[in-house]
Amino acid sequence: MMLWRLLFPALVLRAVARPSPQTLGSGVTVLVENDLQGINGPTPNAGVLLLEAHSLEDASGACEAFGERLWSPETDATEIQSVLNYTKYLESGSGLTEFWIASQNGSGRTIRADGLMSAIEPSQATQLPILCTQSAPYSNETYADTSEKWQVTVNSNNENITGYRDHLSFRFLGVRYAPQPERYTDSVPYIGAGDQVSATEFGSECIQSAYGFAGSEDCLFLNIWTPYLPGPNSPKEKLRPVMFWIHGGAFYAGNANDPITDGGNLASRGDVVVVGINYRLGTMGFLALNDGKTNGNFGIGDQINALDWVIKNIQDFGGDPNRITIFGQSAGANSVRALMGSPRAIGKFIGAIPVSPLGGINYGAEYGKYYTIEEEMEVVGNTILAETGCADAPSPVDCLRGVPPNEIEALSTRARFLVVDGTYLTATELPLEGPTLPFRIMMGITRDDAAPMVTFPNTTDQAAYLKANGFEVPPSDLFPIPPIANETLALFQMANQLATDGIFRCIDQATVYTGLRNDRFQPVYYYEFNRTYAHPGWPNLDVCEAPITPSHPNGDPDGEYLKCHSGDLYYIFGNLGRAGLPMRDEADLPFEQFVVDSFASFARSLDPNPTADFLQARGYLSTLGEVQRPGGTWLPATKEEGGLTIRTLQWPSVHEPFKEIKQCEALGLGLDYYGR
Questions:
Q1: Domain 148-409: homologous superfamily in CATH
Q2: For residue range 524-543, what is the model confidence (pLDDT) as tens digits?
Q3: Rounded to an integer, what distance in angstroms lies between the CA atom of residue 140 and that of residue 338?
Q4: What is the pTM of this model?
Q5: How many separate helices (H) and strands (E) can be counted in the chain?
Q6: Residues facing 47 on adjacent strands
C-alpha cells in the first residue's frame, strides 16, 4: 500500500473532495501560462499543479488527492514549456529542477525544467517535486465551479476553511476576520472554534444604499486569491508577497466582492497573494459623536483589524506576513493614506499604493484633511441625531443602536468622514515631517480623474456653471475653454481640468514633493494613467469612453477621450478578459499585462520594474520588451534637481516632469502647499 494511504487512511475517503496541503504534507502551486486572455488565449489549458518533493510511489496518490493525475505528454499534449521555465526559477534555490511525471511502460519518468524527459528506476528514497495536471476550469464574472471536485481545505485561525481552485488560483471567499461588532464600537479579532467553514461564496457586503439598499451589519469578511498553499514543512522562503486591497466608494459604498477587482488574475500572473476586505461604511462605519466614547473611524479600525488577521494567518494561504503592500483606489486610496499616518498601522506593511487619492479643494477637501469630532458633529452628526429622534436621548449612541439599519441608511445625511479620533488618526492630515516612514510608496492618478465629479453643463454661463459645481472662475490663461464648436462640451472639458488639478493632481504632487523634501518618504514611484478602460457601471459618461471609429468599432484608445476615475481598475487587476470585454486595439492587451506586471513587481520588490529573469522565466516577453527598451525603466521621483518625474502609463510609457505647476499655484495648491 502506498505510504500516503498508510499515513492518512481516514483522508482517503474524502481526499478527492477536500484535500488539505497541511494534512497531505505537501505544498501546492498553481502554475499556468496566464496571458490574461483566459479561455480565449492561445494556450488556455497550459498549466500544472506543482507539488513538493515525494517519492515516485507517493507521487500518483498526491496528485489524486487534488483530483488530478501525474502530468503526461501522452494524455495531455498541452505545451507547458513556459511553465517549466518558471519552475526552474522557483526551485533554483533548492536545486530541485527535475520533476516526477506519469510513468511509462512500468518505469518511473521525470521531466527537467528544460523539457528533457527521462525514464528511471527510482529508489524509495528518491524525492522529487511532482507535476500534476491542472484541469480546474476558469471562472469569470458570471460563472464559477465551486463543486467538491475543486475544493481545498486550509487549517487557519483555528478553523478548517474550505475554498476552491479555478484554473488560475486558489480562492477563499467570505472568510470572517471579525465577529459582527456592536454598532458604533470597534471590531475585535475573530478566532475560530475548530469548525468546518465554507469559503466558496462571497460574504455579505456592508450595509449601504447608494445603489439600492443592500448588505448586512454582519459583513466583516475578506477574500483571498493565492497561487500557492504551503504544506507543514514548506520553507518560509516560498511564501509570496501579499497585496492587501481596500475598495473605494466614497466611504459609503463598495465591497471586496466586485468582479472588476477580482484578485485571481493579479495573484496568478504576479505570483502574489491578493486579499480584499470589507469594512463598515457610511453612518455605520464613520459616525463620531461628542460623547467622549463614540469617536468614529470604525471603518478604519476594521481595516487595521483585517490587516492584523492577515499578519497572523496569511502564511497558511501562502502569503508572507512580512511583505504586505496595502493598496486601494479612491476612498480606498484615502484609507491607504490614513494607514500611512496611523500609529496603529505603521510597521504592519512595507509598501503602500494609493490609487487616485483625493484631497485639495472642493469635493476633495473632506478627504485630504480630517475633521475634529466637533466639526463632524456640525457637518453631519447633529442632523443624524435630529432625524432619528436621538438628539435628546439620555444616551444618543444607545438610541441610535435601536434604530433599524435601513432607516439609518435612508436618512438625508450620512457620516462618511475620517476624523481625528486620537487612536487611529492623531493628526488632521498625513504627517509629512518626522522620521523616514518604514515603507515604500507607489502612487498616482488618471489623467482626468475628476471628470465624473463635475456635472455636465446645461448652460454656457461659465460662472454660474462653476459656482453650481463649487468652483470659482479660474484664470483663463491657465484654464482655457477649448475653442470647439460644442460649447457645453468645451466648458465641461475646462471644468474637468480644473477639478482634476484641484482634487487630485496638485495635492498629490505636493504630497510627494514635501514627503521627499523632508525625507519623510523614500523615493516615490509616481504615475499618471493616460490609457484607461471605462468602468461599465460608473460614471456612465460617454466622454470617458474611447471614441468609436470605423477602424476601431470598440473604441480607439489613441483617440482623444477623458481618462476618468476608476478607468485604471481593469488594468491593475488584469480583468478585461475575465469580464469578456473586447481589446480595442493591439496595445490594450500588452498594456494590461504591463500594468499587472508593474504593480505586482512593486509588491514583490518595492520596485515596479520587473526583473528580466522573472519576466523571461514566465514568458512575459511583451513586458520584457517594454522595460528593456531605451527609456523603459520606471524611475522614481526624488528630491534631487530634476527628480520630480511622473511615469505616464500608456503604450509605450514615458517619463515626464510634474504637471500643471502654474495651475496648481493659482489654485493655492503649489508644490510648497504643505510647507506654508
A1: Alpha/Beta hydrolase fold, catalytic domain (3.40.50.1820)
A2: 999 999 999 998 888 889 99
A3: 33
A4: 0.95
A5: 22, 20
A6: 32
